[in-house]
Amino acid sequence: MNDMITVILICTGVLFNIFGCIGLIRLPDVYNRLQSATKCVTLGCCSILLGALIHFGIGSAGMKALIAIPILFFSATVAAHALIRGAYHFGTGLDKRTVKDDYKNAVK
Amino acid sequence: MTEFLTVLLYIQIALSAACLYRIIIGPTIPDRMVGIDIFGILVVGICAIIAVQTEKSFILDIGIAWVILSFIGTLTLAKYLSGKKLNE
Amino acid sequence: MRYLAVFILSLVFWLLLTFSLKIPNLIIGGLASLLSAAIFSDMYFKTPSKLLQPHRYFWFLIYLAVFIVECIKANFDVAYRVLHPAMPIKPGIVKIRTTLRSDFARTILANSITMTPGTITVDLIGDEFYIHWIFVRSEDPEIYTGMITGLFEKYIKRFAE
Fold first, then answer.
1. Cβ contact, residue pair A77, C19, below 8 Å
2. Min CA distance, B59 vs chain A (Å)?
3. Chain A contacts of C18, Cβ < 8 Å?
4. What's the CA angle centered on C79, arms C75 and C82, to 5 degrees?
């Protein structure tokens, strides 16, 4: 039973990772790529770690998997803020489909 | 179950090849940095799958350390992008 | 008080990570926690007495449930946009005003916005978040402020302000 849940959770995680990486390749500019990749890959890896927690049970190894989840969440989101802000200040242009840019006036 | 996990492990490694594609092809410098950031997160998933497959728990430690190091690396790259020194 | 809070948090983190209660382990963990509390205690917990109010933990749990549901919805949203052959995106950077005051609450709000459907925080200047939105549904500031932060702001105000 535990094996079944582990395999299902890891499958879900790998599926989300596939969506994130397709987005990383297909989407047009750096902001949209960062958006799809950060969301999908973070949740996918959290799902895989949850599968590891179910597999090892509550114990030395399971706790390591559980601790890795909040660390992964905070580091991924903060890194995404830093990268997207850095990309804007670097001068990367927005895609031609962009309809609105309020940030341009604030930076000057 | 072990064989199935091996298949999933190969899929995950192929996904990190997609990140490598973005790092090599990426038209601008921020694109390459996004590739590096996502690659750092994917490696944690690879570590967790290997740990489940081989029943060795010390690989999860490698995963945690990898998350923190990749976070610091990404912050450094972002500082470089916004044109600041490292102590600002 | 702040010193004690950082010390207890880092000791609990160490004990969870090593998961054993042997004497040498406790000594090493205590020494490392003392060191990190001495160095970092003036950076965290402006008002540590908030940690002792139990109703904050209750609202935190409710917030966590809402956040996980939104997070899963975000993933299906991204999957739909990525797998659709025409890629239905209409990106834009919008400006929203926040009513939260403390730094901790603002950090939590920015992280929540990053993980919810279609939005990612770019910057915070003064009281205003700048948010990159993958599909701009509305041009009216009132409506999109409610769409993006309305769900989280009331819970975060209860446990982090």
1. no
2. 10
3. 60
4. 135
For residue C144, give the 3-state DSSP assignment. Answer: helix
pLDDT tens digit string along A76-108? 899 988 888 888 888 877 777 777 777 777 776
Q: Where are the domains of chain C?
A: 2-48, 58-160
User: Between chains, do C13 and A95 touch, taking CB under 8 Å as contact?
Assistant: no
β-strands C92-97, C128-133: how paired? antiparallel
pLDDT tens figures, C38-66 = 888 787 777 777 777 888 888 889 989 98
For residue B10, give the chain A residue with the closest CA.
Answer: A14
User: Under DSSP, is residue B82 helix (H, G, I), strand (E, B) or coil?
Assistant: coil
Q: What is the DSSP string of A46-82?
A: HHHHHHHHHHH-SSHHHHHHHHHHHHHHHHHHHHHHH
User: A103: distance to nearest CA of chain B, Å?
Assistant: 15
Secondary structure element (H or E) that encloses residue A100, with its range: strand A100-101
Residues in a beta bridge with A100: C92
